[in-house]
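Q: Hi! First time doing this. I have a protein sequence and I read that you can turn it into a structure. Is that right? Here it is:
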Amino acid sequence: VQLQASGGGLVQPGGSLRLSCLASGRTFSSYRMHWFRQAPGKEREFVAAIRRSGSSTYYADSVKGRFTISRDNAKNTVYLQMNSLKPEDTAVYYCAADLTAILTMPTYIDYWGQGTLVTVSS
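A: Yes, that's right. Below is the predicted 3D structure, encoded as structure tokens:
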């Protein structure tokens, strides 16, 4: 599967952004979908994940209550709605897909998108 993330940009603290990730192929609904992020000089970290049907979602403590992951299997797209953004949310955000599990470590993820930059600054 190929993943194309979009929706990043510059936003003021307290603002909102919605990221999208479009997947190619006909088996999107087979994948557990994830968002990770990587800030300058830091390791890539887990942000959120969603099961194949969308029935369950998972979040890093740092974004819980502010970010929402969702998916539309008919559109082969996963979303990340980000509210109440903080400067520490500044990072390149990556969508990722895995066939077998929800993973909070990036090491064994099957497929990665190219990333979209989110900058939170006044």
